[in-house]
Amino acid sequence: MSDWTALPDLASRRLGGGVPWANDEAFAERENLIRPTDPVFSPATFGHKGQVYDGWETRRRREPGSDQAVVRLGLPGVVRGVVVDTAFFTGNYPPFCSVDGCAVEGYPSPAELADADWRPLVAHSPLAGDTRNVFDVTDPHRFTHVRLTIHPDGGVARLRVHGEPVADPRLLEPGWLDLAALDNGAAITGCSNMFYSSPANLISPGFASVMGEGWETARRRDEGNDWVSVRLAGAGVPRVAELDTSHFKGNAPGWASLTAGGEVLLDRVRLQPDTRHRFPLTTAVEATDVRLDVYPDGGMARLRLWGALSDTGRAAFTLRWFNLLPATQATAVLAAAGLSERDIRATVEARPVDALPALGI
């Protein structure tokens, strides 16, 4: 297994994931599958359905078949690995599972999703009880939904779908977007310290609601400082930086700076605790990566870098998205753009392409 568990959980409720359908949830609700917190268990805690479990649990089957739940990814993207966590399910976990993925346009109903082109991500595989069961995924396409099948029934605490977000360029304004946003395709590429929490929190959607939803380092006892590096969603020119220390009161950094490829975007500036700071960036530098330095240590809730994709950045951004679409969705995209069946077939079969017909993007 590669270290894909450090990648974002694309299915997490915190990133906008949902569970639009399950065929059965007699003992515990399907929505528990995507809760961002670790599962918990209180023994001898009984509700009207029996022992309360922090997970999804179906009834005992008395007929052939399997149980399923469909998860809408909060951030569509390329799935690198799946964790089927059966924490605290010991005598009632499913002995086997499989996972499929699909990519669809728009916001389909459960009935429409049932007819989607589902592709296998995890083959029929054995599960252990009370265990984080991990599975590599090798399919290289961008997916919008996954489907967990348990064979034949039982309980699963969490489904984690780790991967790389791939944004849809049709839904973005390339002349003004957050170049450092996870949901736009940015990624953390390195950091000096993540003792208390992950630096990926810095670029996550929305505001942090508590300190634990930001990035916090250990206290330094030397003369150095902490830092984090971000690969931007695409090559572009950052114009405004937002450094948000919300919830960090006695442990915010004293100062911060931003650099890109040796160029200073934001010279060392003083920060206040529990404050959203916004700074104009007067140095117009096309960047693909940016480094945030904090002095000397501490915690930050969010980093935002507002700006514009360059022409080359926009082209690469759009091509990456299109080339990663499964053939069925790529066909739908080109059909919506008005291409002929002949041109659609030729373009889809030629992928990866280095140029696109006019898609109105």
From TrEMBL:
Domain of life of the native organism: Bacteria
InterPro entries linked to this entry: Allantoicase, Allantoicase_dom, Galactose-bd-like_sf
Protein family per UniProt: Belongs to the allantoicase family.
Keyword Hydrolase belongs to the record: yes
Natural source organism: Actinophytocola xinjiangensis
GO molecular function, one term: allantoicase activity
Protein name: Probable allantoicase
Gene Ontology BP terms: allantoin catabolic process; purine nucleobase metabolic process
Domain Allantoicase: 16-165, 185-308
